[in-house]
Amino acid sequence: VTFRCTEKDLVGDVPEARYGHSIDVVYSRGKSMGVLFGGRSYM
Fold it and tell me: Could you report the average pLDDT of every consecutive run of 10 residues in the chain (43 residues)?
């Protein structure tokens, strides 16, 4: 739920520069949620 809140915040702030990061989180989420919590969603 932590990464979810960050994703919404990032997209709402700068959907242009943060869009790339948002996709990485969503894509990784379906592949390996562990990697996200490793320190990617936090950033």
Answer: 52 50 56 49 42
